[in-house]
Amino acid sequence: MLWCRGAYNSLENVTPLMVAAGxxxxxxxxxxxxxxxxxxxxxxxxxxxxxxxxGSKFTDVQAFVHNGWKNMGNRDGDLxxxxxxxxxxxxxxxxxxxxNLTSADLVLFVDFDDDANPATADIQRLLQEVxxxxxxxxxxxIARRLQTxxxxxxxxxxxxxxxxxxxxxxxxxxPGLRSFGELAAKFALNAISTYAHVAIGKxxxxxxxxxxxxxxxxxxxxxxxxSELMGVSTEEATTCILRSIYLVDDLTSDITERSISRHLEAxxxxxxxxxPLALILASTPMxxxxxxxxxxxxxxxxxxxxxxxRP
Length: 311
Hints:
Blueprint lengths: L1 H9 L4 H12 L4 E5 L3 H16 L6 E5 L3 H4 L17 H8 L8 E7 L7 H12 L4 E8 L7 H9 L2 E6 L11 H21 L3 E2 L2 E2 L7 H15 L3 H13 L6 H4 L3 H8 L6 H10 L4 H10 L3 H8 L3
Parallel strand pairs: 1-2, 1-3, 3-4, 4-5
Antiparallel strand pairs: 6-7
């Protein structure tokens, strides 16, 4: 398909953004997406996928949307009052993130290369404010052509550090419906957020080794990861996962007879690095306390697992 080939051919333009996102997370910074219109939904999806997929903190990758919940079109309306995790408007960004930006942070504006965007004035105002901070301000544009010069692209090239353009010949094959452009944006966002987490050791041999054990599918996936990477049986891998969840050296019948839903509740109540700890426990017999010491001593999980993995 021409649109797909065009998108992939220009995805190399996204490489500097991937590297920048990785550097931000390695330095303990954040990646903030700023977006408008339909692409805003995709940035929020990408950011929301990071904690369960990579075991990252909610604040590592966040999305902020022009007009906030009004732009999302969700059935329940404005959810800002639910908790700070539901703060996603540009106003929220200006109040909560903008004053605290550092040189370790990446602020990435993501949108269509469209001079007809009704939010143009707000875009220019907010990006100028971000430019006054030490943060790395960059942009990702989805466009019909790489070389076309629009007013928005001209403004961005003068304002941001990197302006990456992904070309999609048929952005909106159906007038008003930019499905191909949105899919290309999701490709690019996936590349950026995935590389960033690879850079901080959240992936080993193409497996997400620090995923959150937050649902039945991820529980079984965690067991498979431990089994395959450490060369142990499914039964032994399950034992290591449960020891990691409950932080015990020996499993009682009370634990082993619990339903998966109860295991999930325990795994997601103030816990992190359940799978990395289970991988260490599977590498060689040791008490949980000793495995925790190893985990604390080596913050880059991939390196720790590589050392522990059996030949």
